């Protein structure tokens, strides 16, 4: 019977989650403050050639400038997700999952604080974006980057079957065990292939042993027959000599009477 998982809250996981969220929020807000203070609005500035460009922009929509006309909806959704993450965090007992939720929480707080406290007003504030790379057409910020990193980790942990307690599911463990067994059996099977000569030699040896058994019996029978013949021959010679002695005795008696 399997033991039931503990319902005790992991203090270490909660501390890591909160610490990661605070670090992401702090770095995101400091970066946005520096951008607003030092960069002109919508004027690109190459930082690493064309690989990384800083361009100050304000986004009323969601991440990567999606839904620019529905700022208040995204504010409500962000608050709802924030409440869910805080409520769900008590189930986390894995440090890796704590990192995932910490990145999500920090990214949500970074963009939500912009929507709540930046112009043009409470709940409809514009998010500060400033990062541009050639692979993406939109401008984003560090909070968006933290959320994307969390989603990548989430998908990776889901594929690996890692639960909130840090343990892999039984199905994933069984699949890994089958894969390891198959990998262990493959070299054994391949090594037996070039060893067909050895198997042939073993088969030949077994065949010789099988053939040797009746040969030994035949040899034994031949020895028995030879021994029997020798015994019979000896008996015959003894009988002939006894007969000759008797005949001689008889002849001597006859000669004496004459």
Could you describe the 3D structure shown?
- The protein is mainly α.
- Mean pLDDT is 75; it is low at 1-5, 189-195, 202-207, 209-231 and 249-258.
- The relative contact order is 0.10.
- Strands 1-2-3 form a three-stranded antiparallel beta sheet.
- The protein has helices at residues 11-38, 71-88, 95-117, 142-160, 170-192, 196-257, and strands spanning 45-48, 52-59, 127-132.
- Helices cover 67% and strands 7% of the residues.
- The protein starts with 10 loop residues before the first helix and ends with a helix.
Q: Give start-end ranges of low-pLDDT stretches.
A: 1-5, 189-195, 202-207, 209-231, 249-258
Q: In this structure, how is the largest beta sheet organized?
A: 3 strands, antiparallel
Give the SSE string.
HEEHHEHHH
Spatial strand order of the main sheet:
1-2-3
Number of helices: 6
Beta-strand residue percentage = 5-15%
Question: Quick check: average pLDDT?
Answer: 75
Class based on secondary structure composition and strand pairing: mainly alpha
